[in-house]
Design goal:
Order of helices and strands: EEHEEHHEHEE
Largest sheet: 3 strands, antiparallel
CATH architecture of the largest domain: Orthogonal Bundle
CATH class of the largest domain: Mainly Alpha
Number of strands: 7
Radius of gyration: 17 Å
Helix content: 25-40%
Number of domains: 2
Number of helices: 4
Shape: elongated
Length: 142
Amino acid sequence: MAKIRVRFGRNEIEIDSRDFYVDNETIGEVIENIRQCMGDAMNESPITSLPDAEVFEPEFSQGQGITSDVLTEKLRIIANESFFDQPRTVGEVVGSLMEHGWHASALDVSVALTKMAFGKELLKNSHDDRSYYFAKTAMVME
């Protein structure tokens, strides 16, 4: 399974190869199609290059290390994918980030999740001496 992530300014598109087949021979064609679609969608001339295109194949790569200053942004991305609809531990969050191709330390993730809970973006609950983070719409653990 591969993921292609393309950033254009603050916008980001991620395509998962579960949706289609992609390999080293077809990746250029896929990126070119994305480039054309992004240009059309933004009613601008097509983008001439994609220097920020990333290809991540979790079975072959350790992923991209991310710093604490972009960690919250990445956590919001997985939150928008309904990841926090169920209560999640720090370890589960680290695992989900790795599936997306982002590597962060458990300590950095814990700090970022705590800040998000403090800012009311996520809720935090403790159960059996473990902290769980979840979306406001998720069921609270008994």
